[in-house]
Fold this protein.
Amino acid sequence: MCNTTWLLIGMVLAGPVWVLATLYAARRVWRTARRVHDHAQARAKGQDQLIELGQLAGGLAHEIKNPLSTIGVNLSLLAEDLAHSPQPHDARMLRRLAAVQTEAARLKDILDDFLRYAGRMELTRERADLRRVVQELTDFFAPQADTARVVLRTQAPEQPVRVDIDVNLIKQALLNLMINALQAMPEGGELMLKISAPLDACCLLEVIDTGIGIPPENLSRVFQVYYSTKTRGTGLGLATTQRILREHGGTIRVQSEPGKGTRFLVQLPLTTDC
């Protein structure tokens, strides 16, 4: 046979092979696309369920908080009545009542923290100089730092650092970091809030303490909800701080060395037209 004849025979014989290979490849692509689609649907459904659970949990927290407030008021009234009683039995009752009041107040704090974290966060943005925000916060925090024998310092550039933020929420986020720092320095120490000169489209604010530090194995968990190494901590302070900063388009990182201290690095976007 001539070469042309063999070429035609080869094409005829090879045709089904190429068709089968194409069909096989197409089937693999279709199966992969379907798996991706099913996974995306499952994730969307899971997110919807999480949103619904969050709404239910928030409603439940409100339902618990209302009667808890009533309980707290009645405990205070009962304590006032027992405080003037000369009976030894009433004195013992008063001590037990004080313990119940303490736990009721702690439960209220946990609910308040949860509602702040889980509730809908609506920002009321305004243009602000971050240097002024930090100065106002340190002026407010100074008496608490003095009581804890902590030297409070600030460092900021000479030029304004303009950001579009919800001032109250940013103060809350930074206050959580400062309270954590104080608790990490039971014997006193130094706490610094340092604003670096604006770089590109962001500014950097560091909260630095000379406290006990965080063990390396715990660093990845500090922003997890309900994670706390404190006996009476709620585990929501740093999680709330992270959420506030994310709502502003910012980030937060942590660096720490046991025995030397901890540094939280906060980045916030600068005002675009400044």
User: Anything to note?
Assistant: The CA atoms of residues 143 and 158 lie 26 Å apart. Residues 1-120 form one domain. DSSP finds five helices and seven strands in the chain. The beta strands are 126-129, 150-155, 162-165, 189-195, 202-209, 251-257, 261-269.
